[in-house]
Amino acid sequence: GDSVTQMEGPVTLSEEAFLTINCTYTATGYPSLFWYVQYPGEGLQLLLKATKADDKGSNKGFEATYRKETTSFHLEKGSVQVSDSAVYFCALQFSGGYNKLIFGAGTRLAVHP
Amino acid sequence: GAVVSQHPSRVICKSGTSVKIECRSLDFQATTMFWYRQFPKQSLMLMATSNEGSKATYEQGVEKDKFLINHASLTLSTLTVTSAHPEDSSFYICSAKSPGTGVYGYTFGSGTRLTVV
User: Fold this and answer.
1) B102 pLDDT tier (thresholds 50, 70, 90)
2) Which of A3, A50, A98, B103 could bridge to A66 as Cys pair (CB 3.0-4.6 Å)?
């Protein structure tokens, strides 16, 4: 079935380091892809999205490119800040029906000063 | 922006008892609410979808009689874990379709960590 696999955390980085969180998916068809972020004590928030192959989603310095050939949607940021410490979830969604989201397990990021 | 308030954030209960988790949409009407569960180191899994005023639609493998969902109003949906057992210990999170945000707009609650002892 359809699924999302993302790298296991926690990921621990120093401030201003480069971040990559890997995400790959398995899907029959062409889903839309998302990254959600959950800050401590808060709900998940949509960080960025890409709806078709080769699209690049970007927000708050984060980027991810929809790669159909490698079925991947890796999250990157050139210089992380302490405030980026959170749990990041990769997800996919097909159009139609009630738009069910399929999530990965989440990757915890801890950024130290 | 749209907010979904989820309570409690943490709950510990004894085996055999029932626990109710509430999700309220603040300042908007949530016609559809999604309930997810996450076991340690596993994905958030959709348990059920509830529409206001109608019966919830459960995903395959989710026990309807164990996880009772009520969506009696446009601002409140509840999940009751009945006769809880330690294997029900998990992280539960709700999500509502956000108004005016297109097909990709969802607002999530902050989650409830349930521990059954």
Assistant:
1) low
2) A50
User: What is the CA angle A33-A87-A40, rounded to 5?
Assistant: 130
Average pLDDT of the residues of chain B: 90
Residue with tokens 């749209």: B2
Instruction: Select from A52, A98, A108 the residue whose CB has the most chain B CBs within 10 Å, as the one to mutate to test that interface.
Output: A98
Q: How confident is the model at residue B47 (pLDDT cuts 50, 70, 90)?
A: very high
- Cα–Cα distance for residue pair A98/B49, rounded to 1 Å: 8
The whole-angstrom distance between B39's CA and the closest CA on chain A is 9
Q: How far is A44 from chain B (nearest CA, A)?
A: 5
Going by the DSSP 8-state scheme, the letter that residue A32 receives in this structure is E
Instruction: Tell me if A43 and B34 make a contact (CB, 8 A cut-off).
Output: no
In chain B, residues with a C-beta closer than 8 Å to the C-beta of A103 are 36, 43-45
Question: pLDDT digits over A75-88, tens only?
Answer: 999 999 999 999 99
